[in-house]
């Protein structure tokens, strides 16, 4: 049983389609089918249900796939460990985080003391973070809601307040605090449904007794505050998005009711090998969000 054949099987299981799997592996479809057939002969059991070029894992295939995943995971972990032992001050850290405004400051501070380290940042939802942590595709995740999993550690870093953001000419711009019910008839600008920030702010509105009139939905969070500045609506803004050197020309108002806060935390897989660089990044993250971040926000 060769590792190459196991890789072919894993790719076929991923796509459940011989032609697509063969294209990713850069081999012909008949060659892939023949290899899978030889593997099944060696195991003495079929691994797929077949319907033309479409294939589906059967109970044998599903059980075998879990073992194959572990094999490749261990090989990857071993390679990471050897590379880390050979070059402890270098290394690559795979990270996902959902705080785009503070991210440049955050990474910049770490790289000041670790100039040889490379950072690979991936955009991911909470569910994607969970999957990628469990499969050792990420080293560290920093999220705005807990990541729960059997092989995941999630530690709170900071409680973040969320404010109301209005244009300078808005009728409420001179208010210091506000009950969220006072803006139940306003036009809101927010992220599209499915984003974590949209979910939590919709929840705040529900607690205040109304469903927000979201007049503009966007996919990129950085577009929200410019739209508020132009007077197209109001929005929510988290504290870590209000930076001293690039604060939007909007007015932030503290929300007295309901309590509008979220918890930022850091997650990792304790069964995944973390390099020296990744371990130092984890410790740096805890310290940064506890103290250093206050230098950058208003």
UniProtKB/TrEMBL annotation:
InterPro entries per the UniProt record, alphabetical: HTH-type_LysR_regulators (IPR050950), LysR_HTH_N (IPR000847), LysR_subst-bd (IPR005119), WH-like_DNA-bd_sf (IPR036388), WH_DNA-bd_sf (IPR036390)
Keyword match Glycoprotein: no
UniProt xrefs under Gene3D superfamilies: 3.40.190.290, Winged helix-like DNA-binding domain superfamily/Winged helix DNA-binding domain
UniProt GO cellular component terms: cytosol
Domain HTH lysR-type: 1-58
Keywords assigned by UniProt, alphabetized: DNA-binding, Transcription, Transcription regulation
Molecular-function GO terms, alphabetical: DNA binding; DNA-binding transcription factor activity
SUPFAM superfamilies according to UniProt: Periplasmic binding protein-like II (SSF53850), Winged helix' DNA-binding domain (SSF46785)
Similarity annotation: Belongs to the LysR transcriptional regulatory family.
Entry protein name: LysR family transcriptional regulator
Originating species: Niallia endozanthoxylica
The organism's taxonomic lineage, starting at the top: Bacteria, Bacillati, Bacillota, Bacilli, Bacillales
